[in-house]
Amino acid sequence: MLTPISKATDFVCITSAAYVSQKIVFHDQIDLSHVDALLGLLGLALPFITFRSARVYQPFRNDSAISRAVRTLVAWLAAQLILAILSNLYPGAALRNIWLLWWTVIAACALIIGRCMIKALPTVFRSWWFSPSRIAIVAPSGANAKLLERITFQTGDAFAAELIFDPSLPHDTMIDRIPVVYELQSLINAVRTEKLREIWVLNSPFQPISIEPLLHEFEHEYVNIRVLPLLDECGPIRSYFGDYRGIRLLNVKVTPERGWGTVAKEIFDRIFALCALSCLSPLFVAIAFAVKLSSPGPVLFRQYRKGMNGTIFSIYKFRTMYQGADIPGAIVQAQKGDARVTRIGRFLRSTSLDELPQFLNVLEGDMSVVGPRPHAVEHDEYYKNLIQDYMFRYRTKPGITGLAQINGFRGETAQLEKMEGRVKLDAYYIQNRTFWMDMQIIALTMIKGFSGKGAY
User: Bacterial sugar transferase domain spans which residues (predicted)?
Assistant: First the structure.
């Protein structure tokens, strides 16, 4: 509902800022050049392309206000940077750039103010015209403070729980100052006494409970009875409602849909990999000579890994161990001071330079620039029975770098907890991936991702 309001507000802010900045710089001049006019029109349209790429208009509750504001500013600055580059290609750029600078600053301030006003709209509307809906919650074997936090997070201030019914309890109690009853009749009496018009049944799809008694009891009364499928969220996979080919479904564990965003990612991967291979070719040659001189054996090391949906492919790396160091049929992670690693190999591993040939895998379509790091097939067979939803990592293409790697889960994972942390971050990336997130991961990899304590 708020997305059209956000777009309209942004357009007003950007247009108004363009007009004010034009008055400041050009004063009352009306003889603007055709270039000025065309760049002005482009400046009104371009931000909504960058806003779309940066996912500025995602559902309102999926983001914090600060995150949304930062993403809006970055998208706005990106649009203005493109406009400034185009401006400098034509005569009269000096005065026009001053206009663009004023426009950028004024619009940035206006966009932030507009974001704050939109953020306050739901609260203002509810306080002026609407009060939160008072509801009774039916939570069999699940009445606790964490449950209430999850409901509050999803609904904001739209609903207020007045009563909880949990038949598994031995007696009535209180949770966060909300009465909790264990008898059905107590629930029925409270709904009528307090004049509640909403009953929410938190029902697990795997252990459904009957709502027939409630339907029968309130058959002739105007009480809304809603069933909320509720899943245990202790694992890394988040369930959500979505449309699949026009059908509304509860997605429990699914591969992300391949839409236009996937096509854009595929194109970006190929272009980025081609540029990386072209720019880094001198470094490739130097590393190849160093590897060849360090010990007998091939320059490149190949190993089988799993790709998207478990497809096996051969991954490329610069060889960092002495030839024949691996035990056939078993993969042992490199450890600190590992005697199998050559001197140049230790340097390549600590700086992640041994991973550079994987841009060839990206060009071949087996990998992406950003995604969960693929593990050796033997490691997959070991960990899949120890870590919940471990194999979910392969619902998307594996990457050269990923969210787990820039957050410290890089290199050796000797403790099970480290692998669990990596899997959790990989699952989060798969379910929340955006182009903006990929750009952040790439930037952070360049800043801090080429070194790490866990890489031996």
Answer: 265-449
